[in-house]
Each structure stands twice: as structure tokens, then as C-alpha cells.
Amino acid sequence: MTTSTADPGSLTSPRAAGLRRERLFYTGMAVAVALTVFAGFARTYYLRPYFTADPLRPLLHLHGLLFSSWVLLLLTQTALVAGRRTDLHRRLGVAGAVLATLMIAIGTATAIIRAKEGFTPPGGPPPLVFLTIPLFDILLFASLVSTALYFRHRSDVHKRLMILATISMLAAPIARLPLSILQAGPPAFFGLADLFLIPCVLYDLITRGRVHRATAWGAIAIVASQPLRLMLGGTGAWLAFAGWLTQ
User: Fold this and answer.
1) How many Cβ atoms sit within 10 Å of the Cβ of residue 116?
2) How confident is the model at residue 123 (pLDDT cuts 50, 70, 90)?
């Protein structure tokens, strides 16, 4: 009698099955994020000419271009990993770092200018209070991306933090979806955005038997920041600071 073990590189080996699951999960998450962003900004950006004749100012065009490029880069990077082109994936990582830096700078400027103009979404708090939401989104994104880049040689940490960094920005497109529930304001669009964290946790539980530390800490940071920023936005200290920013 002879026994045999599966070749680690064979299509039926546990390792190969795990890699297929991983590629399917991250590709699926990237596609779900892209569809959400498109749906949220369709009326105000991607399909704007069909809904209004008002032109979009250059700063908002640049903002939309940068953030759209990030979503496209996420799709490209997950596709490259799925196609086993990790060499090209690493080269594009440099472009990703530059793009993230531009997003942080332009995103901050856009948030401040929009607050100065009195912008707040339907059901949202006053503009200076609402300013905590985009600024904290940018702070979270910057923290998660910079940590992901630091751990770029730890693929298990890197890929999870990159997905979480993108999820941290989804409140903006979700707040613009034509859903009646969003009239409730920040609790509604934060809650819907947090649904994207559930597949991340479930994937870890199914594939690892426990939640990865990167997933746990990243998800906690995203969820915990949401009530904290709303509480901060109503304080006199924040209103004074926001007033100074928007002068």
C-alpha cells in the first residue's frame, strides 16, 4: 500500500484552494466598493450631465478624479494579485503611495472649502459640525494606508489594511445614494458603510478561525471614530477650530 500527499501547487491542494478563496474575496470586495462609489456619485459626478447642466468646478473635478483613480487602482491591484503578477503589483504600489498623498491633500482642502460654502448632506448636521466627518475620514484613510505601506512586506497585514482604508471612505458615496433611510443623516450612512466590515471579519473567521489583528484594529478604529467625531463636532473647541479653518 502506498500513500500520497497533494502537490502544494496542484489545483486540488488545500493551499491552492486557499489562494483561490483569497483572490475571490479581495476581487469581490474591490468590485463591491467600485459599484458603491459609482452608484453614490453617479448623479453628482460620473453621470452629472444627465442630471444637471451646472458645471463642476476644477477642484471638485480633481477630487473626483483622484478618488476614482484610487478605486480603479484597487481593482487593478487585486486583479494583478489574482493573476499572479505580484511584480507589477509592487511597482504600482509606488504610484499608490503618491496617489494617496494627493488624495489626503486635495481631500482636506475640498472638505474645508465645502464647509465654508455651507455644504452638508440631507439630514446632516450644520456645516462646521459636519466638517468632522470628511476630515476624520481623511485622517483614518491616511493612518490605514501609511500603516499598510509600512507592512508592505507582510501581505496578510498589507492587503487587509488597504481594503479597510478604502472602506473608511465609503460613507461619502453611500450618503449620496437615493435611499430614504439616508434622511436620518450620519447614523444611517455610517451604518451602511460599516456593513462592508462584516465580510472582512467573516472571511478571517472562515479562513483563519479567528479575526486577524489588522482587521480587528482597523475595524475598531473605523467604527469607534464615528460617534466620537459627532460628539467632538458639537463642542465649542471644535466649532472655534472649524471656524478658524474656514476663514
Assistant:
1) 16
2) low
